[in-house]
Each structure stands twice: as structure tokens, then as C-alpha cells.
Specification:
alpha/beta; six-stranded mixed beta sheet; Rossmann fold; 523 residues; binds adenosine-5'-triphosphate
């Protein structure tokens, strides 16, 4: 255990929040095993650990969402037993979740109102919402409906909603997982400001460089137990990762002899009106992706990536069949099932709701995407054994950690669910894989497993299209990178030799001609 124990900041007499021997059992499974944690005012305290290490469980107990099985929590030195999140909020504990809890068809202001105690009028609340978002530099239009917003904007709502409750203690569960570097920088400024205001922050992240930069203290969990509390600034990203996994992280290896073959996914001058008035109009998108190749799509969230995914997967149909060609077949107007039968597979950005049905078991979720092109259905009958086998194979190949063989999707930790979804699709050995944010919320070890699997899939002859906001990830695994901006896709450039600066400029719209506004509303 490293001895880089953090200094107690600013001589506060007592921690703001303490857990002493906090334990949470699910049946025989110990999700938290006697965890001691001290969080002080004016401290940004990182909570680190592999997927399934118990981080979310611990913060759910602190936020009153679950009751600990054993142990104690203290708030400003006094024992705290929480009846639920509203009591946590009334004490000054706020939380921003990894999975957003927003209603798509309501406006920003309506969503915020639902999370508050209702003591002020809607008009006053909306004015305060604008004020808080302006003061903290998190711009939001209270009148827009959530379904029209990018992931980054949605997260802003969650943060502003938490800040409107004026928390003394703010828990953030992987807040930068879907943010661009610029959006993340904005958030760090907000967090530094909250710290200067005397608040405490408990910060869950898998991005170790950002933890080093931002956090004063780090507590590391492994398999439900605390293994270390240290000063992350005195550690390296590698030493933090070693503490998390209890060993070295495997390096991703690109196959030396990967050959590109014939075009397997071709997009021809695809223009598409969005399904909603504020969505992004796809404009003249063309690219060709060969077998054996990985093409990355970079870009700030909300520039048409979701719309392109919808068009490629068949959730939205293209105006002309030939605009999307999968393995030589004009597929632009085929359903998602027909596209799967052609050998295509799709991993959307959102894990719960889009990638899986949360309340269904993993085996049932395997059936949802696998029924068209696997042995799970024969002569109209569903084969339970084949469904379970898919779960077992994904579990083994991708080290999916879960409490039993076939739990509900929603019970898996975020990273483990992502490993399951990516595993489920890769194990179908697709000819074409379209994947969005493959390692969102996934720990360093598991991210390496997923990236390696994408590389291996390409090495086996598949065409792989990866949309990611993580430029480091794209640099590590792609052959070429194109950038989406306002519904346009730039000409792909070779990854080798593409500088972050150049990609950053493309992400900001430079050298892409704007003939017409991308948003259908002209916004
Ligand atoms: N309601 C539940 N029933 C059974 N097991 C659960 C439940 N909630 C969590 N677990 C299990 O407890 C373990 C810890 O999960 P937790 O979500 O706390 O992990 P985590 O460290 O936050 O992971 P991640 O980084 O992937 O979000 C996991 O193995 C998970 O499957």
C-alpha cells in the first residue's frame, strides 16, 4: 500500500462525511466490505476501482438509495441513517449519476423541477436554473426538450440540478465519460470553484490522468474492499491502475499483418432529415470501409453521430437503398433485423434502454439482438440453452462480473454491462461492426480487453466503425479518423500522423464548408 497519505486540508476538525466499516451484501455477495472513508470539506476525493469494485454501491448508500447491511455513516461527526435520497439532499448531499435520470419528452426546466422539492414556483425555479447555469458556465436552454439534446448537454442538466440544491457534498459518478476534452475542462473549472466555496466532492472516474490533475485524495476499492487511500498527485496513472487491478494492465496489440480487403460498408452521399425538428441533418456523408479496417469518427457530441448511427443501423431509413451498402447489398431501406442478417452488428452509445432492456435478463437481451442471425430461435421456438450460452461466452471472453449467471441487465455495474453488450455483438463475429463509445465508463483493464477485441475483429476481416469522443482511444485502435461537425463528415485522414490539434480544429468545424445550417430548425 503506498504511503502517499493525503494531508488533512485546512484544519477542519471533523470530516464532513465518514463511513466506518460500511458493508453492503447482496445475498452472499459482498459488494462493499467494511469500507472506511473520510471526506473533508474543500476536498476533491477520487473513488477508484475496477468495474464492479463497489464504487456505485458505496455512493448509493451515502446518497440514501440503498441501506447498508452493516457499519456506520457519520455526517459532520454525527451518526447518519438515511431514509432515502430526499433526506440525503436535505442534509446537503447531492449526486450526479452515471446513468442519467431524465425524461426525454420533458423540457430541461421540467426535468429539473421534478428533482427539486417544489417549494418555489416554476417561473422562479426556471429563472434560478438559468442563473445557476450562467454563474457556473454550464449553458442550458430551459425550454428545450431533453430528447433533442446531446449527451454532454444532458449531463449538464444533471449537474445544474444538483447545484441548484446547494450541496455541501457532491457525488459525481464518471462525469467526464462522455465529455469532450473541452467540456471536461469546463467541468474541472466548476469543480475547482465548488471546492474553493468549501464544498466536498466525491469523484468516481476511470480516467486516471484526470484524477491526478483534479483530485486531492484517492480511495481505491478492489473486489468490494478498500485497498488504499493515497495522494493521486504522487502516483502515476500506471501505479493507480496497478492498485485498482492488483496487477499490470495488458497492453493493446495491433496485429502486424492486418490486411484490408474489399469494401464491406459503403456510405454514398447520405443526406437525411432528422426525425425531430432540432436534430442534426446528415449532409452528403460518404465513406468506404474495407474489411480489416477500423475507421474512427471523432467529434463533439451532438454533431450528427447519433443520427448517423440511426441511419446505419436501420432505426431510420435512408431516402435511397444505395446510400448504405453492406457487403455489396443496398441496405439503406432495410430493417435493423435484415441488416443483422447481412452480418452487421450495432452497439449504441446508451447502454441501458438502447443497448439493453434494463429489466430483462442478460439471456433475454442476448435474444433481442441475436434472434435474427443465430441459433437462438429454431422453427419459431426460442432456445433458452442457446441464449444462456451466449451469456456464458460473453461473460468468459470479456470477464463480465455479475452476482449470478443470468441477472437483469440493470443489476450489472456500468462497465460490466458495457463489456456484456460489446461481447454479445463481437461474439456473433460480424462482417461489419458499428460501435459508439465502446469504452464509456469502462475501467482501464476492461477497456484494453474491448479495444483488443475490436482490433482482433478487424484482423479477422471485419470492417469496424468506431464513434468515440476519446481521441486517445481512436489514436490507439483506428487506421483512419474522420470528424463529424454539423452533420458533415470530413474526409478521413490516416491516424498515424493525424495530430490532436488537427483533429481538434476539424472538431471545431474548420475546413468543412457549411452550405446550409445542419439543424433542421436552423438553430
Ligand atoms: N441490486 C444488486 N443485486 C445484486 N448484485 C448487485 C446489485 N447491485 C450491484 N451488484 C453487484 O455489486 C458489485 C459492485 O457493483 P458496483 O455497481 O458498486 O460497481 P462499480 O465499482 O460502481 O462498477 P462500475 O465501475 O462498472 O460502475 C457488482 O458485482 C454488481 O454486479
Amino acid at each position: 500500500m503506498p504511503d502517499s497519505t493525503p494531508a488533512v486540508p485546512h484544519g477542519d476538525p471533523k470530516p464532513l462525511l465518514q463511513t466506518i466499516g460500511l458493508t453492503k451484501r447482496y445475498g452472499d455477495f459482498l459488494a462493499n466490505d467494511r469500507i472506511d472513508l473520510d471526506v473533508w470539506p474543500r476536498q476533491i476525493h477520487a473513488l477508484l476501482g475496477e468495474n464492479g469494485a463497489g464504487k456505485s454501491t458505496l455512493v448509493k448508500a451515502i446518497y440514501g438509495l440503498i441501506q447498508p447491511s452493516d457499519g456506520e455513516m457519520r455526517w459532520q461527526g454525527d451518526t447518519m441513517v438515511l431514509s432515502g435520497p430526499s433526506e440525503a439532499r436535505s442534509r446537503g448531499i447531492g449526486m450526479v449519476f452515471q446513468h442519467f435520470s431524465l425524461f426525454d419528452n420533458l423540457t430541461v426546466a421540467e426535468n429539473v423541477a421534478l428533482g427539486l422539492d417544489g417549494s418555489e414556483s416554476f417561473k422562479d425555479m426556471s429563472a434560478r436554473l438559468e442563473e445557476v447555469s450562467r454563474v457556473y458556465g454550464l449553458p442550458l436552454d430551459p425550454r428545450r426538450e431533453v430528447w433533442q439534446l446531446s449527451v454532454g448537454e444532458r449531463q449538464r442538466i444533471e449537474i445544474v440540478r444538483a447545484l441548484m440544491q446547494n450541496p455541501k457534498f457532491l457525488i459525481l459518478d464518471e462525469p467526464t465519460a462522455v465529455l469532450t476534452p473541452q467540456e471536461a475542462d469546463q467541468l474541472f473549472t466548476v469543480l475547482d470553484r465548488l471546492k474553493a466555496e468549501g464544498r466536498a466532492i466525491l469523484y468516481i472516474s476511470h480516467k486516471l490522468e484526470e484524477v491526478k490533475r483534479l483530485c486531492d485524495t484517492a480511495t481505491i476499492l478492489r473486489l468490494g474492499k478498500k485497498v488504499s487511500t493515497c495522494n493521486p498527485r504522487k502516483e502515476t496513472a500506471a501505479s493507480l491502475a496497478r492498485l485498482m487491478v492488483g496487477g499490470e494492465i495488458k497492453e493493446v496489440k495491433v496485429a502486424a499483418n492486418r490486411k484490408t480487403t474489399v469494401p464491406r460498408l459503403v456510405v454514398n452521399d447520405l443526406s437525411l432529415e432528422p426525425g425531430d425538428p432540432h436534430g442534426v441533418r446528415l449532409q452528403h456523408i460518404s465513406f468506404e470501409l474495407k474489411g480489416g479496417e477500423i475507421l474512427g469518427i471523432a467529434g463533439v457530441a451532438g454533431n450528427g453521430q447519433d443520427e448517423l448511427f440511426a441511419a446505419l443501423s436501420g432505426e431510420w431509413l435512408a431516402p435511397d437503398p444505395g446510400m448504405i451498402v453492406i457487403d455489396g447489398i443496398a441496405a439503406g431501406q432495410l430493417s435493423i433485423t435484415r441488416r443483422r442478417q447481412l452480418g452487421a452488428a450495432f452497439v449504441p452509445e446508451e447502454r441501458l434502454g438502447h443497448g439493453t432492456a434494463p429489466r430483462m435478463k442478460l439471456s433475454e437481451n442476448a435474444l433481442l439482438t441475436g434472434h435474427a442471425a443465430s441459433n437462438m430461435v429454431q422453427h419459431g421456438f426460442v432456445k433458452t440453452a442457446a441464449m444462456l450460452k451466449t451469456v456464458d461466452r460473453a461473460t468468459e471472453a470479456f470477464d463480465v462480473r455479475k452476482a449470478n449467471r443470468d441477472p437483469e441487465a440493470a443489476s450489472l455495474s456500468g462497465g460490466n454491462l458495457q463489456k456484456f453488450i460489446v461481447g454479445r455483438e463481437i461474439l456473433r463475429n460480424p462482417a461489419v461492426l458499428v460501435v459508439s463509445q465502446p469504452t464509456w465508463g469502462v475501467d482501464a483493464g476492461a477497456a484494453a480487453v474491448i479495444r483488443q477485441a475490436l482490433l482482433d475483429l478487424a484482423a479477422g476481416g471485419a470492417a469496424v466503425l468506431v464513434t468515440s469522443q476519446d481521441l486517445d482511444e481512436l489514436a490507439e485502435i483506428t487506421d483512419r479518423i474522420a470528424v463529424m461537425f454539423h452533420g458533415h463528415l470530413s474526409e478521413p485522414v490516416a491516424t498515424q500522423g493525424a495530430s490532436r490539434e488537427k483533429l481538434g480544429l476539424l472538431m471545431g468545424g474548420s475546413s468543412l464548408e457549411q452550405e446550409e445550417p445542419a439543424h433542421a430548425s436552423g438553430a
